[in-house]
Amino acid sequence: MTRTWDEFAASVFDRIPPALLLLLLLVAAGVIGSLWYWFPRWVPRRWPRIRLPRLRKRPKRQRRAKKAKKEKKAPEVVPAVPEPAFEPSVVLPDGMLLADRLAAEGRFAEAIRQRLRDVVGDLTVAGVINPLPGATAAEVAADAAGQRPALSQPLGDATELFSQVWYADRPAQRVQDEHMRTLTGEVRTRMTDGGTR
User: Fold this and answer.
1) Mean pLDDT throughout 121-145?
2) pLDDT, tens digit, for every residue of 136-166?
3) R_g of the chain, CA atoms, integer Å
4) Spatial CA neighbour of 151 closest among 193, 187, 115
5) Does residue 24 surpass a pLDDT of 70?
6) What was the pLDDT predicted at 178?
7) Are residues 103 and 25 in the same domain?
8) Same domain for 30 and 110?
């Protein structure tokens, strides 16, 4: 193999000088590199399409049946939205309110927070407020009082109690939780009365 290669190389160098051969190899490498780099630009964008005959045609009956199935598709039925019930929004599977469960476990601060969340959820469902993400409890209370002035006093007191427990780090006891339950109940009562008080 090497002898054959040596003889081939010697015959090439006898006919073409080494400097010219090197120049030809560099030009060939440049052309190949250029074609490789700009390959998509010199290839035609669209190749002629070759249409092959279909081997099997679907019988007309099957085509008609598929069209009939598409036409018979029933329109989607949108369920009716029930009237919003002014109840705490988080009810556990056993029927117990989450806030009551937290209070029963002695987690009064979390129960107070949950009672305020529930009443804000009720106000949102009722369309009284539309709280923005990140709104504070005071901002929600001010917005609700602007829409329904009768909610101002109980919702303001509930917000104040929540702020004392969560932001002022005052210890929460059963008394505070019972007071929050009373305040949120009054908010719901005034909300169902239409805010006439």
Assistant:
1) 85
2) 888 888 888 888 889 889 989 999 999 898 8
3) 41
4) 187
5) yes
6) 93
7) no
8) no
Is it the case that residue 41 has pLDDT exceeding 90?
A: no
Do 185 and 108 belong together in one domain? yes
Based on the domain organization, do 106 and 187 belong to the same domain? yes
Q: How many structural domains comprise the chain?
A: 2
List the structure tokens of 4.
Answer: 């054959």
For residue 104, give the H/E element and its range: helix 98-104
State the residue range of the domain holding 36: 1-41
CA distances from 1 to 7, 10, 11, 169 (A): 10, 14, 16, 91
Which of 164, 80, 155, 81 is CA-nearest to residue 118?
A: 155
Tell me the Ramachandran region of residue 92: left when phi exceeds 0, alpha when psi lies from -120 to 50, beta otherwise: beta
What pLDDT does 196 receive? Answer: 47
Same domain, 29 and 102: no
